[in-house]
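Dear Dr. H.,

I hope your travels went smoothly. While you were away I took the liberty of generating a structure for the chain from your last submission, since the lab meeting agenda had it listed for discussion. I wanted you to have the full record in hand beforehand rather than looking at slides cold. The sequence, exactly as received, is reproduced here:
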Amino acid sequence: MRHSKVINHLGRTSSHRKAMLSNMAASLIIHKRITTTTAKAKALRTFVEPLITKSKEDSTHSRRIVFSYLKDKSAVAELFRDISPKIAERPGGYTRILKIGNRLGDNADMCILELVDYNEAMLGGGAVKTKTTRRRRAPKKKDVAAASEAKTPKAAKVKEEEPVTKTEENETGSVSEE
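The corresponding predicted structure, in token form, is as follows:
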């Protein structure tokens, strides 16, 4: 019977499981979203959410406690610098599991584990509407003619600025100016 068997061992030894969860938590914090199996995601959720709660209080003691679990300095810095201010008023539930079907090789149930406040598609701010323009009639022929006349004087000025020297080639192949 399964009396008081709360933790999912994931078919690993204790040290292997702790190292795997630590690496996955660091990846989740840095990348904000990871793809993994559903069993690992559920185990990782119980591992990472207390760490995110601990990061709400930015003190040396809480940084050291979080570092003892994550063992990644850049992940701890990212957690305290970027993630904790964003989730400061959230009372819990920092992660979301989105099931994506089964893996082709071994038919394992796969999912995406992501931080809730970092999914722009779910928040509704990801799709920026582009300004639509109305269809208009083509410009009138008078406007087209006026625009073409405006362009021709510039071309005439460029031609007038060229030097007026004339060169001829002699029978010997030398060039002489007149």
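Two observations you may find useful: The first helix runs from residue 14 to 31. The chain has a mean pLDDT of 85.

With kind regards,
E. W.
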